[in-house]
């Protein structure tokens, strides 16, 4: 079957959020785990999705890693 299961999606989000968190820490930014998970969910399918937020303080370090942010 070509259908993606919820388990597969959650596994990809877990891996991606870990990578984003580590990359941010390597750049000198510590980001709350919940924010990293939100960023991973918004970019999970790789189609250039953007995150609309008023919380630039928490998400701007992730934007440097490629997340598109709009306020």
Index terms:
single chain, 71 residues, mainly alpha, two-stranded parallel ribbon, 3 helices, 2 strands, globular
Commentary on this structure:
It is a single chain. The protein is mainly alpha-helical and 71 residues long. The termini are far apart. 56% of the residues lie in helices and 8% in strands. It is built from three helices and two strands; from the N terminus they run ααβαβ.
Secondary structure: helix percent: 55-70%
What is the end-to-end distance?
Answer: 39 Å
| Gyration radius over CA | 12 Å
Residue stretches low in confidence (pLDDT < 50, at least 5 long) are none
Tell me, rounded to a whole number, the average pLDDT: 81
Shape: globular
Count every helix, treating DSSP H or I runs of 4 or more residues as helices.
3
Structural class based on helices, strands and sheet pairing: mainly alpha
Order of helices and strands: HHEHE
User: Going across the major beta sheet, what is the strand order?
Assistant: 1-2
Secondary structure topology:
Elements lengths: L5 H21 L6 H11 L6 E3 L3 H8 L4 E3 L1
Parallel strand pairs: 1-2
Provide a short characterization of the protein structure.
The protein is mainly alpha-helical and 71 residues long. It is 56% helix and 8% strand.
């Amino acid at each position: 079957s070509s259908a993606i299961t919820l388990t597969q999606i959650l596994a990809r989000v877990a891996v991606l959020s870990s990578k984003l968190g580590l990359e941010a820490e390597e750049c000198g930014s510590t980001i709350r785990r919940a924010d990293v998970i939100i960023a991973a969910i918004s970019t999970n399918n790789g189609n250039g999705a953007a995150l609309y937020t008023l919380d630039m303080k928490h998400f701007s370090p992730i934007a440097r890693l490629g997340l598109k942010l709009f306020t």
